[in-house]
User: What shape does this take?
Amino acid sequence: MKGNEVIGEAAIKAGCRYFFGYPITPQSELPEYLSRRLPEIGGVYLQAESEVAAINMVYGAAATGVRVMTSSSSPGISLKQEGISYIAGSELPCIIVNIMRGGPGLGGIQPSQSDYFQATRGGGHGDYYLIVLAPASVQEIADLVKKGFDLAEKYRNPVMILGDGMLGQMMEPVDFGVETSGDSFDKSWATTGKNGRKKSNIVNSLYLKPEELEVHNRELEKKYLEIKSKETMAESYLTKDAEIVVAAYGMTARIAKSAVDMAREEGIRAGVFRPITLWPYPEKELNAATVSAKGVLTVEMSLGQMVEDVKLSLNGRLPVEFYGRVGGMVPTARAIFEEIKRMSEKFGGVK
Amino acid sequence: MAVVFDRPKSLTDAKFHYCPGCHHGIIHRLVAEVLDELGLQDRTVGIAPVGCAVFAYDYFDVDCIEAAHGRAPAVATGVKRTRPDTIVFSYQGDGDLASIGMAEIVHAAARSENITVIFVNNAIYGMTGGQMAPTTLIGQKTTTSPLGRKSELTGYPIKVCELLATLPGATYLARTSVHDPKNVRQTKEAIKKAFQLQVEGKGFSLVEVLSACPTNWHMKPVQALDFIKNDMMDYFPLGQFKSPEEAK
Amino acid sequence: MSKVRVTFNEELCKGCELCKNACPKGIIEMAGYINAMGYHPAKLVNPQECVGCGFCALMCPDLVIKIEKEEIK
Assistant: This one.
């Protein structure tokens, strides 16, 4: 199945019946797919008048306690930032899918990874974080969408699925596994009409008294600390004895694996560290994967964004270098291999 | 003795923070009376705006959601589409509905969303201190039109009911006023009709209520009534701009 | 014929005078004293003349006014 459509089907398998979105290349196949599928199963697909309206529809739907999703690509995600901040501040669960394209501004429609900062540093105003999941295969898209809904409801926080145009277009086999739902999560806070409840529920992020807003922010902080300690995910490939570790996520990590295979054939001990959660960043896992390393090469389809988190995680322990392509250009395995080779010679790699 | 007039059940006991003579208090009360009379309190979800009525969730004793500025119709859509059995209303002012939220209100009406919108038109931005609104009259002085609104500079006020009436999806559009008891009663009737239509699943309803903002108009509350009667009603005529009979 | 009792909850009143302006009998005046919020609250100065039209209550933005009626046989 195609990546973009797998996002939709996985959401359905996770019990999501509501989608509000807007067309934008390269993710329009997702709303198109759901416009066919959701009515088939009694769900609601609604094309909003803008990405701004769509995220606010998600906010309203999430407030009623249902599983709900929206999707867009980079410029549309920029439009959603205020709404996302409201969702985080009001502690509502939802999934936001970003199929990244070249930027800034109108940019291009080819893949990129230049929204990493936007995704992992909150994105909108205020002190909050999104749980950011970065799939690297069509199967992983299905797994992470399902997991994403669970995380969103467990922590009452928005979750972002961060993909790119290539991933959206890829056709690979996928197994959706068992159907899940949000039934096991507490929804007593939802605004569904009082229906005999004594006190009305209010979904809100306004706290005019600074003392109250401070308390609220500290509660959010507590939540984020818990997520950081419990929910990191990463995959390591041949890192146990690797001298040069390539840090990359999403599609870039797949290409990096090919480059690492090429390096191994030349006797260079290289490996790939692939974070799956970009927030919380898997610091512990990165440090564990670089125990034997002499240097880390970060590869991204950007001018260098995740490289900062790599440096922060390693805290000066190892040299970190960067290789990237931008504008929608995709790094080749050969180019990454050349970088690995260069670093291996630079940092005294034994051939 | 039987009580014939008292605080409606659908309002909490919270004291309104509105200025003396502000008509939000009247309109809140009318909405709550209608919810009581139609027996809707238990299944209603209210969407609060950004504006003086930002604390509407403290006053209406129903489940409420605070919306981002202008986005209430989209938030209402999200609620109503997932929970069609709820009664959903948004309560919005000039900036929220006719400025930043213009796309959302037009599209909610175009889609014939089965919601009720209460639009409080006082021709000014109240909460932020009296700036010009899309509904500010020509010649009206505000903090951002200190010499009076000039059409050559900022065009003309927007007539929301007339604008939305061009949309087949809009089922019921009415403009009323609350400047005297007779008009307060007529506003209540319009609001009741709007909610009744939502109960019957008939589509999108909006009641635009011409109201006073004595503080930012720099008038005493009683004096402000004249501005509605003589100036606002001249440009914003009262009446029904779309009725369910003609909507289909 | 009905007996009517109109009560003003003075602590809620903001002295806006909309009730006084609406009263067709002219029997509402603003008190000389002030309430806890610092406003001169409205009061019914001639309750026996009240016909229970309810105009004051309709216009009041602050739910100050409560009206009770009793049918007298």
